[in-house]
């Protein structure tokens, strides 16, 4: 079959546009890009040639992935479309549509497990039947027609809002209902593949604005600077931050090479005058994850902004769990400090609900929690002010309660005179003592939750340890008050006596008023909407964990301090082109690749791309090129006479 230049031009199109340009015959032609894919070199002259060399293989891999899914079409997740309307898409784009779909509740064994929940990045086919074979995608009156899901709701959070937005490859004419039957032809969305990671790689390879310092560093073989820099920097570090954390690191019984790797990471965190890429190389069982966790713990204590990536969610979660355990043992005041650690990504794929020990550092959970604490009418400020008013003048608060109750009672009586006596019996007013206890209890517990949530989830850069200690002290005083008012009577002057018994410098009201002022000043720069909070948490985090693909979202985040260090776990399992996503983050100065190039490489769908070395990792290429001076020999002897590393 002939191939026009338009069909195969990869220089000016977006990846989505390129996929849209393929006819169904193009997709089914497994040799469609064979002549364009060349072997990826091991050395490069320029950054541009480096990034450009991966593009043909990426396109071929995308093509092969789509072809593979076409061949198993009967198993593709499918949903029925209910409505399609024009969407307010990008300027000059009339191919954007909003779709309402039906949540399939059929129990047909053939459809079981195929309920389609659209995800951003999905490539879908629009058909008039549930497809069982490729021919069903290309039958009249609706021939092969695909679209890209640009926005989708999470049905766990919005179970009644089954909508998603698409960018279509061509105009959609859904048609009017038949005048006789008042029915419209059925229309289905069939998921063919998810393009998210490929699009992110494409953008990273096409970008002309990213940070290329580290990529430039790895272009030439046998780079010979960096070690002296680490030694130089470490001399100035030994007597400062390291001395406080070294006992914790030593308690983990590291061997000599693991200890050297941790020290090297610390040294890199102090280097500001050049860029470097180091390898931590070791087969399974040599303690790579342990070494990396302790390195990250040291970087956390030194406040070095670090991004930790891995090819898969499983690998990311494993490192985050180990780091969280180490950090828990070092926190000085409750959970204060966890706000400096952020894990983010797809909640379902990461199974965060099954990893409760990671929930406190998961970004989506953090943003929702902080948002509840900061909302004006029910958050910490409202609760604290209400508590201050109650403790300052409980008699006045009781009077206001009686006045409000009388007004409500009068309004209810006017609405329904027949139920007045019943209402009086049911809503008999509380006594002063009952009111104080109920009011105090209704404020105390949510205020405690708000305080703990705030110092748990806020970055330490925006809330000081002294303010947190005042919060903890206030919660202790309130706990004592609660215990007292439930033990003894508080009628008349009893409540005043209870407050006097609480040993607070000045008075409990004065202490809480000062705390309110401190918190207000502390939190004045913290945003109150969820979108801004999300960026705020990422901008101010010390350690960030995500997959290499998801790190693409960090390119739009600009904080007061840029990320300084990149750590890639299981680096030998990550395609080199995918590592280009985090390597180009703004401000990044150093990268540490952890892995073993003797393990199986990343999976590649296309045989053509595989032969072109598309599955090769950056770790493997640097190891082959002999970057000895960037290699930290994490050596571990399984037996005194057997070394797992060659000399």
UniProtKB/TrEMBL annotation:
Pfam families: AAA_11, AAA_12, DUF6469. Residues 615-646 form the DNA2/NAM7 helicase-like C-terminal domain. Residues 253-422, 517-607 form the DNA2/NAM7 helicase helicase domain. Residues 408-427 are annotated as: Disordered. One of its GO terms (molecular function) is helicase activity. InterPro entries: DNA2/NAM7-like (IPR045055), DNA2/NAM7-like_C (IPR041679), DNA2/NAM7_AAA_11 (IPR041677), DUF6469 (IPR045529), P-loop_NTPase (IPR027417). Signal peptide: none annotated. Residues 415-424 have a biased composition (Basic and acidic residues). Residues 91-208 form the DUF6469 domain. Gene3D superfamilies: P-loop containing nucleotide triphosphate hydrolases. PANTHER family: DNA2/NAM7 HELICASE FAMILY (PTHR10887), P-LOOP CONTAINING NUCLEOSIDE TRIPHOSPHATE HYDROLASES SUPERFAMILY PROTEIN (PTHR10887:SF522). This is Uncharacterized protein. It comes from Rubus argutus.
């Amino acid at each position: 079959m002939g191939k026009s230049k338009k069909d195969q031009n990869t220089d000016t199109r977006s990846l989505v546009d390129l996929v849209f340009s393929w006819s169904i015959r193009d997709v089914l032609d497994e040799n469609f890009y064979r002549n364009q894919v060349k072997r990826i070199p091991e050395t490069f002259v320029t950054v541009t040639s480096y990034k450009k060399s991966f593009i043909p293989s990426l396109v071929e891999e995308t093509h092969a992935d789509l072809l593979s899914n076409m061949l198993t079409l009967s198993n593709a997740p499918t949903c029925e479309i209910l409505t399609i309307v024009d969407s307010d898409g990008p300027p000059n784009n009339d191919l954007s549509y909003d779709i309402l779909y039906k949540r399939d509740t059929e129990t047909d064994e053939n459809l079981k497990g195929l309920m389609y929940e659209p995800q951003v990045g999905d490539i879908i086919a629009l058909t008039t039947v549930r497809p069982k074979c490729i021919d069903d995608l290309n039958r009249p009156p609706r021939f092969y027609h695909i679209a890209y899901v640009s926005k989708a709701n999470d049905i766990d959070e919005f179970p009644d809002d089954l909508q998603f937005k698409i960018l279509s490859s061509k105009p959609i004419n859904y048609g009017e209902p038949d005048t006789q039957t008042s029915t419209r032809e059925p229309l289905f969305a069939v998921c063919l593949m998810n393009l998210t990671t490929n699009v992110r790689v494409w953008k990273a390879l096409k970008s002309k604005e990213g940070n290329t310092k580290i990529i430039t560093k790895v272009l030439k073989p046998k780079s010979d600077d960096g070690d002296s820099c680490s030694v130089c920097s470490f001399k100035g570090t030994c007597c400062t931050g390291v001395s406080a954390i070294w006992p914790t690191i030593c308690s983990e019984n590291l061997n000599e090479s693991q200890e050297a790797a941790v020290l090297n990471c610390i040294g890199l965190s102090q280097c500001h005058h050049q860029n470097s890429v180091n390898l931590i190389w070791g087969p399974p069982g040599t303690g790579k994850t342990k070494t990396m966790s302790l390195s990250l713990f040291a970087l956390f204590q030194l406040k070095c902004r670090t991004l930790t990536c891995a090819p898969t969610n499983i690998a990311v979660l494993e490192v985050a769990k180990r780091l969280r355990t180490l950090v828990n043992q070092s926190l000085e005041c409750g959970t204060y400090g966890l706000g400096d650690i952020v894990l983010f990504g797809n909640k379902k794929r990461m199974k965060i609900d099954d990893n409760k020990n990671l929930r406190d550092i998961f970004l989506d959970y953090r943003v929702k929690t902080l948002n509840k604490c900061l909302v004006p009418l029910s958050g910490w400020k409202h609760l604290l002010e209400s508590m201050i008013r109650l403790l300052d003048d409980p008699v006045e608060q009781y009077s206001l309660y009686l006045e409000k109750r009388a007004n409500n009672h009068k309004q209810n009586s006017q609405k329904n005179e027949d139920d007045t006596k019943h209402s009086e019996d049911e809503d008999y007013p509380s006594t002063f003592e009952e009111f104080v206890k109920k009011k105090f209890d209704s404020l105390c517990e949510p205020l405690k939750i708000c305080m703990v949530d705030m110092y748990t989830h806020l970055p330490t850069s925006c809330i000081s340890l002294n303010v947190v200690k005042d919060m903890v002290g206030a919660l202790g005083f309130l706990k004592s008050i609660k215990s007292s008012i439930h033990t003894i009577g508080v009628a008349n002057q009893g409540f005043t006596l209870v407050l006097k018994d609480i040993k607070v410098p000045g008075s409990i009201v004065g202490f809480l008023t000062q705390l309110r002022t401190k918190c207000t000043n502390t939190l004045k720069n913290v945003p109150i909407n969820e979108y801004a909070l999300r960026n705020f948490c990422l901008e101010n985090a010390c350690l960030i964990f995500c997959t290499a693909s998801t790190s693409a979202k960090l390119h739009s985040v600009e904080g007061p301090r840029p990320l300084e260090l990149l750590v890639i776990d299981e680096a030998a399992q990550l395609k080199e082109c995918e590592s280009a996503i985090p390597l180009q983050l703004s401000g990044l100065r150093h990268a540490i690749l952890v892995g073993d190039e003797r393990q199986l490489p990343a999976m590649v769908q296309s045989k053509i791309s595989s032969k072109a070395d598309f599955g090769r990792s950056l770790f493997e290429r640097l190891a082959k090129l002999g970057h000895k001076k960037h290699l930290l020999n994490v050596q571990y002897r399984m037996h005194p006479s057997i070394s797992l590393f060659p000399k």
